[in-house]
Write a structure and sequence with these properties.
By secondary structure, this protein is α/β, with parallel strands linked by helices. The chain is 43% helix and 11% strand. The chain has nine helices and six strands; from the N terminus they run βαααααβαβαβαββα.
C-alpha cells in the first residue's frame, strides 16, 4: 500500500451542507429572468465557479450579460447566500466529518481544502473546523475553475506534498476530473452513477474511517 501524506477536501456537499443555500440563492436569481432552475440543472453547478454558474443559468434563457452585469449579479447572488449562511454553526457539518478530521490529525496526515467557493474560509470559521486545515485554497486563489486541477495543485504545494500521495474528496464530476487530471487519488462522495471516474465512491463519511477508505482503495488496486 502506498503512503498517503495528505487529504484535500472540497467544501460544499463534502464537509458541510451548504448546497441547499446555493440552490436557493441561484433559484431566486434565475427567477428574475423567468428562468426555472431545477434540481437537475442545479446539479450541473456543483464545483463550478460563481461566474460560470451564472453564465450557465442565463444561457438557459438565452440571455446575454455584459461584464459589468455579470459582476453585479454575482454580487447579488453572493449577498443572498451570505445572508442565508450567516447563522451557520457546527450542526451544518455532515455526519462524521469532525471525527474523520480528528483521525487524520492523530495520524499526522496533512489536511487541505480545495473549493470553488469564495466564502470557504468564512464557512470553515462558522462551523468551527478551521483549525484542522493547514492549507485553504478557495475561488479567490485560482485562475482556472474545476475541472482544471489548479485548486488541488495549489493545495498540495501549500501542504508540501505530491499529488500522488494525496487523496482528494469531491462530490462533483468536475471535481473528480480535476483531481484525476492532476494526478491525485479521487474519492467521490455521493452516488456512483454521478461520479463514474472516481477511484472510489462512498455515500458519505458517516460509516467510514480514514483507514476504511485506504483499505477500500487498496482492495481495488488504486493505492
Amino acid at each position: 500500500m502506498k503512503t498517503v501524506s495528505a487529504c484535500i477536501f472540497d467544501l460544499d456537499g463534502v464537509l458541510v451542507d451548504t448546497a441547499k443555500y446555493h440552490f436557493i440563492a441561484w433559484r431566486n436569481l434565475a427567477a428574475r429572468w423567468h428562468i426555472e432552475l431545477t434540481h437537475e440543472e442545479n446539479e450541473k453547478l456543483k464545483g463550478v465557479s460563481r461566474k460560470d454558474s451564472l453564465l450557465h443559468i442565463v444561457a438557459l434563457g438565452d440571455i446575454t450579460l455584459t461584464d459589468e452585469e455579470i459582476e453585479h449579479w454575482c454580487a447579488v447572488k453572493n449577498e443572498e447566500y451570505l445572508s442565508l449562511v450567516a447563522g451557520m454553526n457546527a450542526s451544518e457539518l455532515l455526519p462524521n466529518v469532525v471525527e474523520l478530521l480528528e483521525e487524520l490529525k492523530t495520524k499526522h496526515i496533512k489536511i487541505g481544502l480545495g473549493s470553488a467557493s469564495k466564502n470557504a474560509a468564512f464557512i470553515l470559521e462558522k462551523t468551527g473546523i478551521q483549525h484542522f486545515f493547514e492549507a485553504v485554497v478557495s475561488g479567490n486563489d485560482v485562475t482556472h475553475s474545476k475541472p482544471h486541477p489548479e485548486v488541488f495543485h495549489k493545495g498540495a504545494k501549500m501542504l508540501g506534498v505530491k499529488s500522488e500521495e494525496t487523496i482528494v474528496f469531491e462530490d462533483s464530476q468536475k471535481g473528480i476530473q480535476a483531481a484525476k487530471s492532476g494526478g491525485f487519488y479521487a474519492v467521490g462522495i455521493g452516488k456512483e452513477e454521478d461520479l463514474k471516474t472516481a477511484d472510489l465512491v462512498i455515500p458519505s463519511f458517516e460509516k467510514y474511517t480514514f483507514e476504511d477508505i485506504k483499505q477500500s482503495l487498496s482492495q481495488i488496486n488504486k493505492i
